[in-house]
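For the sake of transparency, this paper describes our internal protein records without simplification. Such a record has a labelled line for the sequence and another for the backbone structure tokens. Nothing more is needed to write down the fold, since each code stands for a local backbone conformation. For reference, a complete record is included directly beneath this paragraph.
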Amino acid sequence: MKASVWTRKLHRHGSILIAAPLLVVLVSGLLLQLKKDWSWVQPPTQRGAVAEVNLPWAQVLEATRAVAEAEVATWADIDRLDVRPERGLIKVRCANGWEVQLDGTTGSVLSSEKRRSDWLESLHDGSWFHPAAKLWVFLPAGLILTGLWFTGLYLWWLPVSVRRKRRRGNP
């Protein structure tokens, strides 16, 4: 079998195999590219009244508990804290995907919105479907996509090289 025929078959079948995972990666990646520009993906980062953070941790927990949508009762309900002293801000990311932004000195709630960027990242790498999907579906799809890139480059180069040979007088 000629290399050009083999490459076309590999290119065609590979693209069919990875169509669904690639679509998930493309759409989620596009949305993640817009996370700082589109508040539906990630809430805009606010600024506190003063560029410092001196809020006691107990007050952070109490202020976050006051936001019903956050569904926080204890520290176990909080996924992570993002402290930004230069903005006077504490971002509290809750286990349910909600984000509460607090003023770093007063503890007042500056913003309270759903944060979808973490969910989109897990969708993007395949771990949202199942932990094994990341290694057994999305990793092979990435490897096949790399192969498609090479076979596509070869399929593009083949007619170019034939035209060059013809111009030089080599049949």
In short: The first strand starts at residue 78 and ends at 84.
